[in-house]
């Protein structure tokens, strides 16, 4: 794997070039196309750990009722598939490639060797697991305590970036994707987006949405 890709992987960010070259042989590069299933839920095949080097992948669950639930989007440099390598249990979710993605694949044994023999790698791994746990705790709290319309507004805020006239959602997410992120139904998303637009709190344009006054969203008024 190219050295610059290794440098982008979070658990390796404290290593110098010499150390990175020493672990390069542990990692195999693989490319997935948009729509590919990278990891299958409940799979018991030999565990591998993967690091996202470029592209976009999403961790999801499919409920018995046929609904999709977005657990998290993996950022470039982050690991996925590491839980099963650590505890030996079956895969806990599906992982799909959202865009064409380059992934660094590490076998379970090689991953455990790297973690147990290098305190810097182990510490970064613990930080990543802690970050995931905090994110899941926050989302569980939102699901338990917030009404669906507030969860939808929270998703819009997560998708938005600052712009000159407010917050901008640069790429329009489908109603189904927003529903999967907010743990609700597509029809509820349609109603909430329409309500926000009628209040001029959400403005649609060709490439996305503008939130001109984010401070007036109901989600922002929760103490």
Give the arrangement of secondary structure elements.
Elements: H1 3-8, H2 17-23, E1 27-32, E2 37-39, E3 48-54, E4 57-62, E5 68-74, E6 79-80, H3 82-87, E7 94-97, E8 101-107, H4 108-117, H5 119-145, H6 148-159, E9 161-163, E10 166-169, H7 175-182, H8 186-198, E11 203-205, E12 208-211
Antiparallel strand pairs: 1-8, 2-7, 3-6, 3-8, 4-5, 4-7, 9-10, 10-12, 11-12
Fold and architecture overview:
The chain has 223 residues and is α+β, with helices and mostly antiparallel strands. It has helices at residues 3-8, 17-23, 82-87, 108-117, 119-145, 148-159, 175-182, 186-198; strands at 27-32, 37-39, 48-54, 57-62, 68-74, 79-80, 94-97, 101-107, 161-163, 166-169, 203-205, 208-211. It has a four-stranded antiparallel beta sheet. Strands 2-7-4-5 form a four-stranded antiparallel beta sheet, with helices on one face.
Give the gist of this structure.
The protein has helices at 3-8, 17-23, 82-87, 108-117, 119-145, 148-159, 175-182, 186-198; strands spanning 27-32, 37-39, 48-54, 57-62, 68-74, 79-80, 94-97, 101-107, 161-163, 166-169, 203-205, 208-211. The protein has 223 residues and is of the alpha+beta class. The N and C termini lie far apart (48 Å).
């Amino acid at each position: 794997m190219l050295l610059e890709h290794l440098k982008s992987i979070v658990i390796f960010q404290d290593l110098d070039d010499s150390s990175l070259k020493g672990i390069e042989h542990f990692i195999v590069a693989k490319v997935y196309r948009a729509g590919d299933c990278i990891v299958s839920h409940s799979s018991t095949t030999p565990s591998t750990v993967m690091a996202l080097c470029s592209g976009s992948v999403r961790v999801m669950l499919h409920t018995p009722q046929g609904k999709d639930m977005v657990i998290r989007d993996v950022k470039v440099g982050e690991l996925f598939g590491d839980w099963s390598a650590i505890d030996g249990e079956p895969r806990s979710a599906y992982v799909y490639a959202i865009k064409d993605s380059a992934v660094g694949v590490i076998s379970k044994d090689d991953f455990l060797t790297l973690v147990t023999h290098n305190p810097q790698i182990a510490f970064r791994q613990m930080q990543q697991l802690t970050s995931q746990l905090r994110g899941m705790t926050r989302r569980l709290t939102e699901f338990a305590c917030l009404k669906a319309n507030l969860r939808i507004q929270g998703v819009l805020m997560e998708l938005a970036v600052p712009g000159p006239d407010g917050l901008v959602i640069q790429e329009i997410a489908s109603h189904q994707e927003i529903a999967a992120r907010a743990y609700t139904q597509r029809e509820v998303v349609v109603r909430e987006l329409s309500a926000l637009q009628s209040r001029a709190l959400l403005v649609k344009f060709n490439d996305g949405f503008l939130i001109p006054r984010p401070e007036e969203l109901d989600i922002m008024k929760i103490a």
